Amino acid sequence: MESEAVMSSFHAVYEKLNQALDDLPYDELGISVEVKEQVELTRMQLKRAKKRSDTQDIELAMDMMVVFSKKDDRNADSAILERLAIKLELHAIPDLKAEEIAVRKLVKERGVQNAESIQQINDLLGKFKQIAGVDETIVLDGPFSSKSLQRCRSLLIPHEFLCPITLEIMVDPVIVATGQTYERESIQKWLNSKHRTCPKTGQTLGHLSLASNFALRNLIQEWCEKNNYELPKKDACLGSDGISAELKEEISSLVQNLSSCEFEVRREAIKKIRMLAKENPDNRILIANYGGIPPLVQLLSYQDPNIQEHTVTALLNLSIDETNKKLVAREGAIPAIVEILQHGTNEARENSAAALFSLSMLDENKVLIGASNGIRPLVHLLQNGTIRGKKDAATALFNLSLNQTNKSRAIKAGIIPALLHLLEEKNLGMIDEALSIFLLLASHPEGRNEIGKLSFIKTLVEIIRNGTPKNKECALSVLLQLGLHNSSIILAALQYGVYEHLVELTKSGTNRAQRKANSILQHMSKYGHIP
């Protein structure tokens, strides 16, 4: 009912944030290039947010408009009321009673303020009660009457005029093979991203042809004229794929500059591609389509730390796209990234770890990274890196350790002492990450032999006693995994006083903690270890 006021509050915050980020003295503050780029991206998003009028839940808004309309014949349609009641979770009598009490309280707090909204809520509650089988009128104590209220007009776009992808009014609606209608620019971007399904239905598209929906376009134009609504103007420079010719030309030029003989031209091209690849998915696809990945992979071996840092970060940003993950690996980037991970600058090493994490989302790349000796330098970064470096290394090692052979490599590289250090250094805030990797390693025989030492079991019990809810869940999972393979682990945990904490967690822990604690207790009972 008051979404516009709430949205205005958010836009006021956007404005303040934008002003605060204006002309930040980056050099005086000693901010890294990576953070500076992040701030600039945030500012761009804030500017876009300021210009954009967000669309609310359109079906809900349309139903509300119909229900509150005094002229619309559909006002009496019980199907609309039932749908509204279900969506607002006000179809059961206890819920309606609770809402009525809440509205009464609101009236007392606000008095005449927002009186129209409150009266409309009152009317709607009455209708909900009728369809729920409660025939009574809700009388609110308030210094206003329905006669003194004037209806506030609000412009709501019919939901069938909105593109299912962007939830914005369509200017050029087109029909896909499944019969669904989308804004041409939006569905073209979807198809350009190698998707071959209908976004709304999930069905595979029989063909990729797009047919203009002239009938709907005419209806939209008629509605706009009737309601004095101005359609957003399409950029004349945009191609059928929704990408401007100017951007295509820029990316094509930048890719060519990657092979320039001039050092400064190359460096600027890499930096710009790094930034463009970070901005949005379309840019990542476009850079790859224009052949940007092979020259970037070659530049990883360029003997300049600055070039290496920007290049590995550009490839990290490009690898967010699923198809690009394959292309980057196919071009032979992984050994070169591992080399930078070993010998690059601090920021280059951190971004190399993040790039290996991104690439390792594909199973075949997990194998490649392990075979390219990528595990040992990641363990070294986990031990000796900055906090950010440790986090990047931990996420990469977790993903890589999903592969059984890589578990053995990580154990031989000394990952377990490094993880134990993370558990001891609580100020690092990486207990969950460490325990998650321990859980993977505990499924490997070598890992269980290394982990199952008394000092580690004592640490686990301390976490189960004093950790955060998430810490406790992870520690219980590791203890259960170890205990299932070695009952002496459970005996050791009992000696450190785990039993009373397990019993407590079965009553007051999170759902996952309760399940794990119960499983450990059952395992204890099975072997007669219950005190």
TrEMBL record:
The keyword Transferase applies. Pathway: Protein modification; protein ubiquitination. ARM repeats lie at residues 291-333, 332-374, 373-415. One of its GO terms (biological process) is protein ubiquitination. Its EC number is 2.3.2.27. Keywords: Repeat, Transferase, Ubl conjugation pathway. It comes from the Eukaryota. Gene3D superfamilies: Leucine-rich Repeat Variant (1.25.10.10), Zinc/RING finger domain, C3HC4 (zinc finger) (3.30.40.10). One of its GO terms (molecular function) is ubiquitin protein ligase activity. SUPFAM superfamilies: ARM repeat, RING/U-box. It catalyses: S-ubiquitinyl-[E2 ubiquitin-conjugating enzyme]-L-cysteine + [acceptor protein]-L-lysine = [E2 ubiquitin-conjugating enzyme]-L-cysteine + N(6)-ubiquitinyl-[acceptor protein]-L-lysine. InterPro entries: ARM-like, ARM-type_fold, ARM_PUB, Armadillo, PUB12-19-like_N, RING-Ubox_PUB, Ubox_domain, Znf_RING/FYVE/PHD. Residues 156-230 form the U-box domain. Functions as an E3 ubiquitin ligase. This is RING-type E3 ubiquitin transferase.
